[in-house]
Structure formats: C-alpha cells, structure tokens
Design goal:
Layout lengths: L3 H20 L4 H11 L9 H26 L4 H24 L2 H21 L14 H15 L4 H11 L4 H25 L5 H21 L5 H24 L3
Helix pairs in contact: 1-2, 1-3, 1-9, 2-3, 3-8, 3-9, 4-6, 4-8, 5-10, 6-7, 7-8
Length: 255
C-alpha cells in the first residue's frame, strides 16, 4: 500500500512537472520549498541541501519528458541546445559543489532571492522576441551562471535560461522555453551525480518526485499553448513570493 508520504511526494512532483514544463523552469522552484514545508507534516525532516539534491532528479525528469514533447512539436532548437549545454553543465557542476559546502541559511537566502526575481519576471512579462537576430556575446557567460544556479539551488536554470535565450539569443519565447527544457535535462545529470557522491541524494524521495514530474511535465508541455498565460503567471508569481517569504522567515525570522 502506498503511504501518505509517498502520495504527497508524487503530488509535489506532478505540480512541479506541469508548471515547470509550461514555463520552462524545471520545477525546482516548487520541489525544494515544497519538500521542506510538506514533509515535516508526515514526520520526515529534510534539510534544504537534501531537498536540492532530490530536486536535481526532478529537473532531469522535466528535461526528459518535457523535451520529448517539445521535440515532437518541433519547438526545440537542438543545435542551440547542444552548443550552449557545455556552459550550463560546467556551471552546474560548480554550483553543485557549492551546494555541498555552503550553510543552509546561505542557500535558502539565495533561493528566496531567485524566487522573488522569478516572480518579478513573470509579473512584468517577458519581452517577446519573434524576429531572428545575431546572438549577443553575453549568452555563454549568462548560460554558465544559469548552470551555477541550477546546481546550487536545485532548479532547472530556466529562470535565467529563458530570458537569455529570448532576449540575448533572439529565440522566440515558446522555442526559448522548449530549448531551455532540453538543456536543463542535460545539466541535471551532472548535478545529480555530484550530490549523490556527496551522500545527500535520497533515492526513494527522488523516485517519487521523478514519477510525479514525468506525469506532470508531459501534460504541461501539451497544455502550454492552451492555458491563458496571464492567469497562470499571476498565480505562479504569487506562489513564488509566498514561498520566498516563508523561506526567509524560517531561516532569518528567529535571528
């Protein structure tokens, strides 16, 4: 019989997969804080570093499932993805090593700041670039930074990758989301290996998250063109702001 804890973990994965695939975010912005806040209600404590490690498997699942659907729709810029993925993979490895040594309060603070930045981007709305143009020279370092954030915080890096692909590389927004999803799957493999080597990866939790994400990401990729973007972004932005405040209160509220 499946336990309530397992069902909760799978549910977190489904939500992360749907929203992650629709917005190209990888789902880590849902998985990491959700594991920290939900698991204690089931008698299971988890540190933010362990949650980040588990999230890497969720990001990998989003990348595999979401990218497969986007490839079928012809939205993935595969050549762009292959050219830029070495930067995110190298950054991801560096960020993962940082995640093993930095204190939980520091990681939580950086994560909360990134959540607020993501909420700001969603509320403001990404400037849609539909005309092809020459990529900026800032694309490689920006993608490396996205990889570092991916490894350190357990996110897919889409909060950085999508704006970079859209605004700096001149990729149309839907293709930017699809290509970001493709890249994050490649990046998450290396990140997960680093956390596994560091002894922080809980395989059972990761399996539940991965199962839920595989279900949710497949559905999310198919729903992206049907859901009113404005309503979804508003809801997601409010969720990000609430989560960031909760994280900051947990690690800073008591001094």
């Amino acid at each position: 019989m499946i336990s309530a804890l397992t069902l909760a973990v799978i549910g977190i994965g489904i939500l992360a997969g749907v929203l992650g695939a629709i917005l190209g975010l990888g789902g880590g912005v849902i998985v990491v804080p959700a594991l920290e806040f939900v698991l204690p209600y089931f008698g299971r404590e988890i540190s933010i570093s362990q949650a980040v490690a588990v999230s890497q498997i969720g990001v990998l699942a989003v990348g595999l499932s979401g990218a497969a659907s986007y490839l079928q729709q012809g939205l993935v810029r595969a050549r762009t993805g292959y050219l830029l993925s070495p930067y995110t993979i190298a950054g991801g490895a560096a960020g993962s090593f940082l995640g093993l040594v930095l204190p939980a309060r520091a990681v939580a603070t950086v994560f909360a700041c990134l959540l607020l930045y993501s909420a700001y981007n969603l509320l403001r709305g990404l400037r849609r670039v539909e005309v092809e143009r020459q990529p900026s020279r800032l694309v490689p370092p920006a993608m490396t930074f996205a990889g570092i954030m991916s490894g350190l915080l357990g996110i897919g890096g889409g909060t950085v990758q999508v704006p970079v692909l859209n605004l700096l590389a001149g990729v149309p927004i839907r293709q930017a989301i699809a290509t970001s999803t493709f890249i994050m799957g490649l990046t998450a493999v290396g990140n997960a290996l680093v956390y596994q080597a560091g002894g922080l990866l809980d395989v059972r939790l990761a399996a539940g998250i991965a199962l839920g994400v595989l279900i949710g990401a497949r559905a999310g990729a198919g729903l992206q063109s049907r859901i009113p973007a404005a309503q979804l972004k508003l809801f997601f932005s409010l969720l990000l702001i609430f989560t960031a405040v909760q994280l900051l209160w947990k690690y800073w509220g008591n001094g």
